[in-house]
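Hello Y.,

Per our agreement to keep a running log of every chain we model this quarter, I'm adding this entry. I've kept the format consistent with earlier entries: sequence first, then predicted structure.
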Amino acid sequence: MDWNFGDLLDATAANVPGDRPAIIRGDHVVNWADFDARTNRVARAMRDAGLQPGDRVAILARNIPEFIEVAAAAFKARVTHVNINYRYTTAEIEYVLRDCQAAGLFYQDEFEGVSAPLTDGAIDHLILSVKIGGDGGYARMASEGDPSPLGIARSPDDGYLLYTGGTTGRPKGVMWRSADARRSQLESPVAVTTPASMDDHIAQVGRNLAGRVLPACPLMHGAGLNSCLAELLIGGTAVLLPFDRFDPMKLWDEVERHNVTRVLIVGDAFARPMADALTANPGRWDLSALRLISSAGLMWSEEVKTQLLEAVPNLTLLDILGASEASGFGFAITNRERSTPTGTFERGPQTVIVAQDDDRILAPGEPGAGWLARRPPFGAGYHGDPAKTATVYREIDGQAYAVPGDMAEWLPDGRFRLLGRGSMCINSGGEKIFVEEVEEALKRVPGIVDAMVFALPDPRFGSAVAALIQAGEKPDDDAIRDALSAELAAYKMPRRIVRAETMPRHASGKSDYRRAIEIAQAAPA
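Predicted structure for the entry above:
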């Protein structure tokens, strides 16, 4: 089925009760009737301003209802939604707007200071700029005008641009078609519905299977918005946290208050403080509605999963391995009856491992490390960067594959173990060391709460393994290395260990390795 998100949103809105909540943030509720009307009005305003199918419209905002509304309106108007990191400076925002040739910008009033220099003719292709909140024009745009569906023909090629910072270089926009993004959503092993046609979709929406999803991570990252979109497309509800700084106690308050059924996190950066809050406050929250916690984008350790299940035994924990360029490489499901070692996954239906040297597809169970890859559906390439597109989206033996750069190896039972990001592989004296392996070993050392591993220049070996750790009991370096020696070869040992009170992370929870290296280099030797 060639899906289109605009068509799906129209069909869903027409088949759910209008008074059902579509978005909740604290005390603020947008019901489905209002969500449909508001997004139709904003979509019309985009087209009336001169935006054409395929034009880009960017959104700069925190987790507020208007973020989801603008994205939905873009799908309905056939314009391409673009995410912008709300931590960016004016120069970084300008880079994204120019790189994608944005025709529109919606920005939260909190970010007027960094946006204003760009919205007054400074960028000639930016023909629409709308402030959300305060004295901005968004409230009027969403509340006045024709609220009916646009009634336009749409294309499965309509989609969005997902900008990803990566670990090096400028942000790059990954192009996603609606059809491919929806097919990727439906590959999830816990997908509530798996429709084969629009009639099938409408029938399944009518079965009232929808729940309530709470993304703990920012909507500006792909997983956050995608989780909300997937729930909305079955007539469900997106619950947004009504505070900006992550607070696990307040998160559990919101989960209980709004009967959340699924929480989306980004690995241990979110899961560990959430688990600690539950352990320290047994029985404080009624979490009987909560069925699923899913994670994407960062390692989620077996130890923390066990801690969560001890507090909430009926949970299912879903670890999703994906990338901005392609999703669904692997899944790990953990519950009371089933545990999953850290970093191991069941392969997705289209997943393969490609040999490093000769592009040969390794058979499941065949030994040797290789590149994790998958067949379609996946992203359509990098906007404006055919050279980068050609390195990631490749043809092997006549079949299209996405090969984003993660390395893995098959396990004898057909599962695979994630070894690490190829770009995060340290070459020290000719030996290859995967960052994630050392990080996970460090986090198993008693007293170490969190760890980041990276390379520092070394006059003898070219690069040396270094670690930034957050330690509660503050074990000394010798004790750390003694503990690691049972798991790691000597060449994988951190030659330098630096301590930090808190770990440098992006808003998504992902490690900020650039900042970690700066901290390590500035620390006394």
